[in-house]
Amino acid sequence: MDIGPVIAKRYRIKQEIGSGGMGVVWLAHDEHLGRDVALKTMNVAPGLTENQRARDAERFQREARAAARLDHAGIATVYDLGEEKGTRYLVMQYVTGIDLDDRIAEQERLTIAETASVGVQIASVLGSVHARDVVHRDLKGRNVIIRTDGVVKVLDFGVAAFLDPDTARLTTTGERPGSLECMAPEQVKCTQVDHRTDLYALGCLLHKMLVGEPVFEHRSELMLPGLILDQPPTPLRELRPDTPSDLEILVLQLLSKNPRDRPAHAGEVWQRLAPWLPPRGDPAAALTPWAEVDPLRPFRHPMGPDARPVRAWANTRRPGQRG
Predict the structure, then answer these.
(1) How many domains does the chain have?
(2) Does residue 136 sit in the same domain as residue 230?
(3) Is 138 a catalytic residue?
(4) 9 known member of a binding site
(5) From 30, 138, 156, 294, active-site residue
(6) What's the CATH code of the domain at 48?
(7) Which UniProt keywords apply (predicted)?
(8) 4-27, pLDDT tens digit by residue?
(9) Which of 94, 133, 167, 292 is the most buried (most CB within 10 A)?
(10) Of 46-50, 95-99, 214-218, 254-258, where does mean pLDDT reach its minimum?
């Protein structure tokens, strides 16, 4: 897709950082404000009539504006939207950190406290957006970024995740999103989805954080839909005996085949994960620089000052100052 090196005489494309069925995400530099941004260009389905293209363009604009109204610390902020050479684009906050899949690969599995710390932050985001009739529908490890200070950001709400109040159905732009690894049974069957679809995906992430492996795996991806629909998930304590029984029950409920058997809302998940959050730390330790991603930090040192990694800390030391 040739969109040129500079979009809207403002956003200079630096490199591609992600792609999928719905579009491509680029790292770009906003030359007006001097900051890096994530710029997402949207694919246009082939064979559409002019009326269909116009309707999709209108929907894209309406839903991008809805995304821009989402306000939560765990969501990447939407900055701008527009069209360049027939390609629609969305400009968002560029979030740096490590994605959850990479974190799990590094650690093999997360501690109970780390899992709870990441899980409650995701649940907080979902609770906020679900209250605004937004369903993510593609929650997965690659869409969850853990910053160095431990703050979790849920990415890629995109422009295809909004409940249309006129039809009570999800509007769509481009391909249906959803990763098989975290896809709920109702998505596999192409039936109605709602906020409980995201809760199933959260259950998949909690399972993977705790045991290091997806809920369902098979050498052939073609077999996964059948497993999702028919095979019960393995209880966590069979895979990780130190898992608290209440946590195992929560994850099994989140992974229920029938959405009605899952927790009622993300707030309930948040509440049930909260007992495993780390205790508040010594305030003096909040001033200690660190070098690694720490999902526990937002709970041990909430609103801690100078929340930055050791290299940034070192750059601010005055000559002769001792660490």
Answers:
(1) 2
(2) yes
(3) yes
(4) no
(5) 138
(6) 3.30.200.20
(7) ATP-binding, Kinase, Nucleotide-binding, Serine/threonine-protein kinase, Transferase
(8) 799 999 999 999 988 765 678 899
(9) 94
(10) 46-50
